[in-house]
Write a structure and sequence with these properties.
Blueprint lengths: L2 H7 L4 H26 L10 E8 L4 E9 L2 E2 L3 E7 L4 E4 L5 E4 L10 E2 L4 E5 L2 E5 L2 E6 L2 E3 L4 E8 L5 E10 L1
Length: about 170
Amino acid sequence: MFPSRSFTNDKSGVSPVIGVMLMIVVTVILAAAVSSFSGSIATKNDVPSATFKASASFSEQNITIEHLGGDPIYKNFVKFEISYGRPTMSNYVDKSNVTFYPKNGKDFAEDVLGPGKVAKISFPIKALVPGDEYANVAEQMIAIGQPFEIKVIDRETDLAIYSTKIIMGP
């Protein structure tokens, strides 16, 4: 008997072992490549967090948004959305109609709404029918006593920083 002859005829054990080892190596390399790629993807910044108080005055022709606390809000990084009616219609306020005012002597740049400052959204009054006047807020015709929604939206993430329903006061 020649024991070495039996080993030379049996070649089936070598190929599956090498195949399994190659599959494991390829899997580890792919996992490392996916992990390094996903770790390098930049995430979007968080939405600013702030507390506001809003009111609307028909006679003063403005919506007042007072910043009570939290992160400062930069005028160029936010948009104001007005929603009104049934079905609900929405539109953004033109940035030229928004002005930031200082309040309580706090010092911020004129385009920053920080704690203690106020944003005023001005709007014209239109008469659709003689004697029947409406506030034209972002092309939404709102009468005195009518509720509407205002949102302060972060431009980068398109998420709401603040949202509330208010009533158009006299």
